[in-house]
Amino acid sequence: MIKVGDALPAVTLSEYIEVEGNGCSIGPNPVEVQKAAAGKTIAVFAVPGAFTPTCSAKHVPSYLQHAAALKAAGVDEIWCLSVNDAFVMGAWAREQKTAGQIRMLADGDAAFAQATGLTLDLHGKGLGLRSNRYSMLVKDGKVAALNVEAPGKFEVSDGATLLAQLRAA
User: Fold this and answer.
1) Cβ distance 159 to 65 under 8 Å?
2) Which of 17-26, 31-40, 48-57, 70-79 is predicted least confidently?
3) What is the band of 152 on the pLDDT scale with cuts at 50, 70, 90?
4) Which of 68, 82, 84 is nearest to 163 (CA)?
5) Of 43, 72, 62, nearest to 135 (Cα)?
6) What is the C-alpha to C-alpha distance for residues 130 and 124, in angstroms, rounded to an integer?
7) Rounded to an integer, what distance in angstroms lies between the CA atom of residue 88 and that of residue 49?
8) 28-37 LR contacts (CB < 8 Å, sep 24+)
9) 106 with 89: CB under 8 angstroms?
10) What is the pLDDT of residues 111-143, one digit of tens each?
11) Which of 21, 36, 9 is closest to 105 using CA atoms?
């Protein structure tokens, strides 16, 4: 499993873009993780699935609530990762009203989740291989803090916890 001090994996995620600009076309666009994280401080959080109860009612809202404070404390971007496709993540972004605050990134084939060792096997629940619920603070492409949830829990990966860790660093 990835740990503090490790570099993010060299994988490509995708992001659904609503408005064309800055070299991005409307629709799914590739996001090369290492390139996108270089020189930035990023608050990353991952969820087992878009539109699922805890993820929609608690996890994303905790980062929306603390987005301004995270950015004031030095975070350049906030990323939400999920093993879903870019179209689902785009629809979820619209529903959660994350535009301009959280980048909703699709890990469609679970490449990031597998490369970090942060997978969650939900085959018995009809969801297949997913990402575990966690948060991490990333500085210049390296993990500075990592908070992995126990199965079925939402206690340490919320926006307030990551903000407190950022302020304590």
Assistant:
1) yes
2) 17-26
3) confident
4) 68
5) 43
6) 12
7) 10
8) 28/85, 28/86, 28/87, 28/90, 28/106, 29/86, 31/103, 31/105, 33/8, 33/9, 33/112, 34/7, 34/8, 34/9, 34/10, 34/141, 37/8, 37/138, 37/140, 37/141
9) yes
10) 999 999 999 777 677 666 789 999 999 999 999
11) 36
The domains of the chain, with CATH numbers, are 12-168 (3.40.30.10)
Residue 54 burial (CB count, 10 A): 16
Residue found by looking up tokens 């800055």 in the block: 22
pTM score, two decimals?
Answer: 0.94
CA distances from 139 to 6, 42, 117, 152 (A): 11, 6, 19, 28
Burial category of 76 from C-beta neighbours within 10 Å (exposed 0-12, middle 13-18, buried 19 and up): middle
Residue 126 to residues 49, 117, 121, 136, Cα–Cα distance (Å): 12, 21, 10, 27
Catalytic residues: 55
Q: How many residues does the chain have?
A: 169
Kindly list the distances between the CA atom of residue 147 and the CA atoms of 38, 64, 95, 118, in Å, as whole numbers in the listed order: 21, 18, 26, 11
Give which of 58, 35, 115, 36 is closest to 83, Cα–Cα. Answer: 115
